[in-house]
Amino acid sequence: MTGDPPPTANPGYEKNRMCEMPTATQITMTHLDMNGARCQALFSSGLQPSDAPTADMVATAISCAVQQFGIGGCAGRMAQEYGDHPDAAARRMRWVRQLIAQGSETQRQQVAA
Predict the structure, then answer these.
(1) Which of 16, 30, 78, 87 has the fewest CB atoms inside 10 Å of its own CB, making it the most exposed?
(2) What share of the chain in percent tops pLDDT 70?
(3) 57 lies in which domain range?
(4) How far apart are CA 59 and CA 69, in angstroms?
């Protein structure tokens, strides 16, 4: 009876608040988060540089790793490898990041065409 709005099922509800669109920073962060998850999944996959992976092989390896380990499991496997073999893990992550960057660039070129 103090003039406060009635309680709702949504505790984040604010009176007269409009729906907000994500900002460019929020969208960019989401893109970076997705690339991070892709890197973790590819890192934890069995794909090797000697496989001379194609874009399809990379996509399949990422998908299989996420299905097998989950996103958290991929992150855990990557952390374990950095703890056990930091030099080898750093080399692998550089390779993984190159593959992910190449895939992102290829997608941008396809969209622009």
Answers:
(1) 16
(2) 63
(3) 24-112
(4) 15
- Domain membership of residue 15 (yes or no) is no
Q: How far apart are CA 33 and CA 111, in angstroms?
A: 21
Find all residues with CB under 8 Å of 62, minimum gap 6, and list them: 38, 41, 42, 45
Note the Cα 83 to chain centre separation in Å: 21
Tokens of 44: 């934890």
DSSP secondary structure letter of residue 12? T
The two structure tokens encoding residue 57? 């092989």
Q: Which residues contact 71 (CB under 8 A, 6 or more apart)?
A: 37, 40, 41
Number of independent structural domains in the chain:
1
- When comparing pLDDT for 73 and 5, which is higher? 73
Chain segment 14-40, per-residue pLDDT in tens: 455 555 656 655 555 555 588 899 999
With respect to residue 49, please indicate whether it lies within any of the assigned structural domains: yes
Asked whether residue 4 is domain-assigned, the answer is no
Residue type, 109: Q
Within-domain flag for 17:
no
